[in-house]
Amino acid sequence: MKKFACRCLRMSLLMVAALNPLVYAAPDPALEKQIDELLANMSLTEKIGQTQLRDWGTYAEKDMPAIKQAVRDGKIGGFLNVTMSSVNKYAFEELQRIAVEESPKKIPLIFGQDVIHGYKTIFPIPLGQAASWNADIVKQGARIAAEEATTDGIRWTFAPMIDIARDPRWGRIAESLGEDPYLASLLGVAMTEGFQTEDPTDPTAMAASAKHFVGYGATEGGRDYNTAYVPEGLLRDVYLRPFKANVDAGLMTIMSSYNTLNDIPATANKFTLKKILRDEWKFDGFVVSDWNAVMEMIPHGFAADAKHAAELAANGGIDFEMHTDTFEKYLPELIKEGKFSEADLNTAVRNMLRIKLRLGLWDNPYPRGNREQVLLNEKFLAAAETAAEESFVLLKNDKKILPLNKKQTIAVIGPLADAPFEQLGTWIYDGEKKDTRTFLPALKKYLGNDKNIIVAPGVSYSRDKSTAGFAAAVAAAKKADVILYVGGEESVLSGEGHSRGDIRLPGVQQELIAQLAATGKPLVQVIMAGRTIQLDQTLEQSTALLMAWHPGTMGGPALVDVLYGEVSPVGRLPLTWPIAVGQIPYYYNHMATGRPATDKNYTRIDKIEQGVFQHQPGNSSNLLDYGHKPQFPFGYGLTYTTFTYDNLQISAKEIGLGKTLTASAVIKNTGKVAATEVVQLYVQDIIGDVTRPVRELKNFQRVFLKPGESQKVTFTLHTDELAFHNQAMQLVTEPGQFNLWIAPNAEEGLQTSFMVK
Q1: What pTM, to 2 d.p., does this model score?
Q2: Domain that holds residue 606
Q3: From the candidates 237, 290, 319, 430, which is the catalytic residue?
Q4: Backbone dihedral region of 282: left (phi > 0), alpha (psi from -120 to 50 degrees) or beta?
Q5: Do 465 and 397 form a contact (C-beta atoms < 8 A)?
Q6: Catalytic site residue 284?
Q7: Which of 142, 590, 616, 661 is the most buried (most CB within 10 A)?
C-alpha cells in the first residue's frame, strides 16, 4: 500500500489530539456573574430579542432596512443562512458591527449554518464517515469544516445529527451516523469535539448543535417530519444515548425535532426538553427549535394558533426560535396573562448568553477572514481524500477482481463516474461542484493517459429512463477487460424531505447492469448513494460491489486509489443492509422474539410444496420470501486480504458487579496484502427484567496487519457497560449470564459466555 506511511503519520497526529478532553463544560462563576449583570440591565424587549433566530437567506432587498434596525434595537439574537442570501451573502461583518456597536447592550449576534460534512472542502456524507468506524477521521472532518466556516463568521453549526436511523427509506439517514447507539455516540462526540475544540473561544471554533431531539429517526414509514412512537426504555437505551454522550462531552447547543414523539411535538415536549435534558442531565446550553417548527405545531393539531404555539414552545423548553417570530409577537402578552413567566424567559436568555460568552463572541465577534489561504487548501483536500478512502465499504469481490491493474482496459459506464455535483451529497450549502474531483478525470490522471479507458455512460443521470445509451455502453463493455459501473442515486434523492418508498437503483440502471452482465465480462459496481440500496439481481450480476456513499470533494481520486489497490478498503457498514424494503426496519440489535428464526426451522417460499399442511413450512419470525437475515450485516466489510480470528479468552467466567472483564482474541492476516481489520466486541444479556437485544456493540478496535502478521486484540468490559433501563425505568446492570463475541461483524465471530454475580 503506497500511501500507508503518509496516512499513518496523519492518523497518529489525530489520535494524539483525540486524547485531549473538552475542558470548558464545568460551571464558571465569573461567567455566570457576567450573565447576571447583563440580564439585570436588559429590557423585556431586549431579552425576547435574544430568543430570535432569523433566516437572512429569506429576506429581499426591501426587507434589509427593517431587519438591520431590528438588530440595532436589540430585537434579534442571531442569524442563519447568511451565505444563502440572494442580496448579500457576506453580511456577517455589517450585521455584527450593528449589534456590537449600535444595539442597546452591545450583545453580539451568533451566526449559524448547516455545516454538516464540510463547508467548502466537502467530506463524505455523515453516514459515509460513520462507515470509516474512525473517530479521528470524523473529528478531523469537523475541525476542517470549522476552520473554513469561521473565516466567514459562522460560529455555530447545526451538527452533529445523531438520530439513530434504522430505516433506509428515510432521506435523512444520509446525515446520520447509523443505527447503533455506541457507534453514533462515539462518532458524534468526535464531531462535536472537532467543531468546538478544547477552547471554544478560539476564533476557529464553532458551537455544535446535536440534533434532532429526539426520535426523528424513528418516524413511521421513513417519512420525514412524521410520527414517532418510542417506548421510554427504548428511548433511553437507544435514541437518547448519543445525546447524553455529547452533553457529557461539553456539547454547547441542541436542536429539537420536527416529529411528534409519543403524540407530543418534540418542539414542546417537556418530558424530553425539561425533565430529561435539564433536570436529569443538567444541560446548560441553549435549545433551538428547528426551522419553522414552532409554527408547525399548528398543522400537527397541537397548537390552536401562533400565540398558542409560542406559549407551548416557550414553556416546553425552547430558548431560541428559528425563523419564525412568535416569541417576539406573543411573549409579552403571555407574560402579562401569566401563561409564561419572565423568570423562565430569563432562564432562556441566560442559556443564550452563556453560549455566546463561552464562544468568546465579545472578544472576537467578527469573521476571522483569510479565506484564500484557508478554504480548500491542500492539507484539507488530502484529509478529505483519506476520509473518502476510509468510508468505502467493499461488499463483494469474487475472483479477486479487485484491485484492478493498470494494464486492463476499463469500460467506465454509469451516470455518476463524472458527476461533480452529485458526488458531494446532501446538505452542501456552500460546497461547489467546480471544486469537485470526480472519478473519470482522476482515473485518466492515474493511468497517465486514456488509451485503456472506454467511456459510455449508458444513462445521463441516475433517474434517467431512456435506454438510448444502452447499445453504446454494451459495445464498450465488450471491448473492455473489466466493466466499471459507477451508479447509484443523485444527491437530491436523499436528505431532508427526500424519503423513498422504493430504494432500488432509480431509473433504468438495473436494466443497464443486466445487459452489461450479459456480456460475460467482469463487472465492478460502485454505488454512490445516501442510503443502502435494494440490490436485487444486480448483486449476483456484479463480480465486485463497492459502496462509496456520496464521498465529497475528493471522492474521485479516493475511488481510484481504492479500486487500484493503492489503499485497501477499510470501511464497515454502520447499519444493516436489507435485502429489500419488505424487511424494513431491520437492525442488528433486535430482540430474539418467542420464535426466533434459524436456517433450519422454516421453509423458504420457493421450496414450499403445494397443498401442504398449514404449519409444515414452519412457524418462526421470518419472511418467507426474504428469509430472516439481511443482505449484509451491521459491521460488515471486506478488504483485499483475509483475516482469521482465534484463541478467544476471557479473564474470568464470573465477575462481580462493579468489576471489569478482559476479553481477547488473536487476529491474523492470512492474505497477501497489508490491511486494517475492524475487530468488534458484542455482548448479549441472555435474561433480563425486559427483553434484551440479540447482540449489542460494546467496543471495537482497528488493527493494521501486514501479510502473515498476527496480533492479540484485548478489550475491557466494565459491568456498568451492561446496564439498561428496567421496567421501573431504573438504569441497572442485572446479575446473570451473558454471551460475548469478538467478531468481524454482527453475525459472525468467536463466542463465549460469562456470569455477572
Answers
A1: 0.96
A2: 596-629
A3: 290
A4: left
A5: no
A6: no
A7: 142
